[in-house]
Every structure is written in structure tokens, then in C-alpha cells.
Amino acid sequence: MLYWSIGRDILARQTAEGWGARVIDRLAADLGRDFPEMTGLSPRNLKYMRAFAEAFPNEEIVQQLVAHLPWGHNVKLIEMLKDSEERLWYARQAVEHGWSRNILVHQIESGLHRRQGKALTNFARTLPAPQSELA
Fold this sequence. Notes:
Elements: H1 2-17, H2 23-34, H3 43-55, H4 59-64, H5 71-80, H6 84-97, H7 101-109, H8 112-115, H9 123-126, H10 129-134
């Protein structure tokens, strides 16, 4: 939620000050100075936070779904998927099935969203969730 909140603040500042104001660079310098022990506040990561807030504008969805995913999962969802409905679908699946980041990437690259429900299997009934996903 912290990263989403920072991203939302960056979006608001960029809207108010304009793109040429170097909001992210100034914020990274200010945060680095004020919180030297805290990691993850580089300009690059702040750009991801901005993209995260832009990709998931609804705070309720963030709290109920994507806040349950590690940051690396959310970055992959943002980088790899432009469609918001598809991004939410993969986020739900990752939470529900406990996917690692590599499994999430594999499922996106293999187009699981498009293939879902096309093949008949009994994996879900006969194997617990982690094993049925691997099968």
C-alpha cells in the first residue's frame, strides 16, 4: 500500500507540476536523504510505483488483491500486461494458486488467460492446488 500511495502522489504531482518538473528525480533524492536506511526508493523503483498506481487506480482492488502479491509480481504484471482486466485476472490467479514470480511470467507468456477452460482435466479434483497448477 505504501508503494501504491507513493505512486498516486507522484501522479498527482506530475499532473500539477507538469512532466518537465523532474518530480521523480527530486522525490528520490528527498526520500534518500530523509530515509537513508530504507531501500527501494530509487528513481527506477519510483517509476514502477507511479506505473503501479496508474495500472491499479482503485484503492479497494489494491487492498483486496494486489497488496497480497510481492512487489516483484506486481512489477511483472505492469511490465507484461497492458489490458487492465487481464492484469487483474493474472493477479487473482497468482494469489489463489500461490504462484512464484517465474510461474506468473510463464503463465503470462504461455497465454493462460486465453487458454483457460479450453482443455478438460481432472487435475483440480485429484491434486491439491500447487501440484495441479504444476501438472
